[in-house]
Amino acid sequence: MSNQKLFNVAVVGATGAVGEQILRLLAERNFPIQELKLLSSARSAGKKLQFKDREVTIEEATPDSFKGVDIALFSAGGDVSRALVPEAIKHGTVCIDNTSAFRMDPETPLVVPEVNIDKVSDHKGVIANPNCSTIQMVQTLKPLYDRYGISRIIVSTYQAVSGAGASAINEMLRQSREVLEGNAVEPQILPVGSLPVKHQIAFNAIPQIDKFVDNGFTYEEMKMINETKKIMGDESLEVTATCVRIPVVYGHSESVYVELKQDFDIEEVKRLLADAPGIVVQDNADEQLYPLATDAAGKLETFVGRIRRDLSNPRALNLWIVSDNLLKGAAWNAVQIAEYIAIEQQ
User: What region holds the Semialdehyde dehydrogenase NAD-binding domain (predicted)?
Assistant: First the structure.
């Protein structure tokens, strides 16, 4: 990337799992930074984090923190974004928000760069990063949508505990030790920290991510449904989702059934996916080659395999999609948007 213009950048939620990945990517990709601000809660203020060859002191995030900031990347939770994004916009800051706070706001672009990067220019100060499980699915389905059209999507997710934060990772590891040692397990966090009933995640699968809404779906499932339609720009899409938490640390996996509007050749489908930006096809049954969360962890790409024509509907496909939920599902998608903004302003 050209360094003709340097940007004052803020990372809000710098000490969190996604914030750490954002900082790593900004450093590794030599994002053109003039001044870097690391913003977090009051309890983290004063601590130092390493960025390239220097230490940066964390500051408490306040409305005045954004004076002179060109681009701010938010990953500190919806309440923080709702409170501080409007304040940052007043200072002329372009905000890239990783939370759900603005995703369904009709004025806010909801962007996956490989799908709808052109929407960035429509922003009014904030660009929303979609839900992690939505990102990898729409990124994969976009070339198929463009070529054949899509009428219906049925997705079941198998989501890593890191999606619920560092405490959920520690909870899973603690529970696993308890089970292996023959001790009683006392669940404390999952499926939802603020709800009274907790379930064991070790050696288990929990079919609840986020709270339930009146229609029997969870907020996570409704995010996938609504965000997919918005990103694809197609309210006629029929989408349904079941989201499940499994005892994997990093990497969301998805089983996706998709009905296309036209007949297709399966080899052409594989070529379209292989040629799509950011997609890696791993699909060889003879060699038992297919995407695995353990292989996707730490990688920026989205992986797709088990590509096959449905047996009951000749215009339908079944796919298996895997990606690192903290990278393409969050930090990398946000940094891609920031890079696009920086290039546009060079």
Answer: 8-123
